[in-house]
Specification:
Layout: E1 15-24, E2 27-37, E3 42-46, H1 53-61, E4 68-73, E5 76-77, H2 82-87, E6 89-92, H3 104-114, H4 122-131, H5 148-162, E7 166-170, H6 178-193, E8 197-201, H7 205-211, E9 214-219, E10 222-228, H8 234-245
Parallel strand pairs: 3-8, 3-9, 6-7, 7-8
Antiparallel strand pairs: 1-2, 1-4, 4-5, 9-10
């Protein structure tokens, strides 16, 4: 097993798991996870279905309660500071849930207000959507006419408007064409450069290598190895991944 890497030294973790575990009946979905993500890090969780990636994200979001351990957001225990921790997070699932009959502007206005940002004004809302990569001409159209890539950009715009400290992504590039996937990665890079901490669950080894600063490989609910993307190539990552998941016939 590869030695686990430490996060950026001296930085206060935006996301931290301490002995974090989750049981569903007799099944342990997550087993004693220790993880810390500092400002400006993009941490990619890799692993086959059922490895514990989505469970990890759900625990940070407070969607489920841990069976043991703690999930911390900017030092706040999610179990005891649910509302405060959610204010510091933005979440983009595989399918971004927006109000289809509202426009991009109206969706952003609504979710920004929910995040405590108040009324930003139409001009500022359009600026944020354009900053997130959405064509300004599409901002006033109903979301029901948007492609998946456009909906993901609205999700990024919500994170920008909310001024989130940390961003949680669950298979965000699944189903996107190469151009849209590349654009999404560039947006994540922009947020990283602002000091946002990012945790991304993905099956996309190529995107993890190109977008992430660190990758962690999960198997049977355990974090089995952790790597710096600056120190490995695409072929190395694929080889190491397969070495860890081969025993159950899984593939990336």
């Amino acid at each position: 097993m590869t030695e686990l890497q430490e996060p950026n030294s001296g930085a206060t973790p935006l996301l931290e798991a301490r002995g974090l575990s989750k049981d569903y009946g007799d099944t342990r979905a997550l087993d004693s996870l220790d993880l810390a993500i500092a400002p400006g890090e993009v941490y990619c969780l890799l692993g086959p279905n059922g490895a514990g990636k989505t469970t990890t994200i759900n625990l940070f979001l407070g969607f489920v309660a841990p069976s043991a351990g703690q999930a911390l957001v900017s030092g706040l225990n999610v179990s005891t500071h649910d509302r405060e921790s959610k204010r510091r997070l933005a979440y983009i699932p595989e399918q971004v849930m927006l109000y289809r009959n509202l426009s991009g502007i109206e969706n952003l206005e609504y979710f920004a207000a929910l995040g405590g940002q108040g009324s930003l004004g139409r001009e500022r809302l359009v600026e944020i959507l354009v900053e997130a990569g959405l064509d300004g001409k599409a901002a006033g159209r109903r979301v029901s006419t948007y492609s998946k890539g456009m909906r993901q950009k609205v999700g990024i715009a919500i994170a920008i408007a909310k001024k989130a400290d940390a961003l949680l992504l669950d298979e965000p590039t699944s189903g996107l064409d190469p151009t849209a996937s590349n654009e999404f990665s560039a947006l994540v890079e922009r947020l990283r450069n602002r000091g946002v901490g990012v945790l991304m669950a993905t099956h996309d080894l190529f995107r993890a290598k190109d977008t992430g600063t660190r990758v962690g490989i999960m198997h049977y609910g355990r974090l089995v190895t952790e790597l710096s993307t600056a120190e490995i190539g695409h072929a190395d990552l694929e080889r190491i991944y397969l070495e860890h998941v081969r025993d159950n016939g899984a593939s990336p």
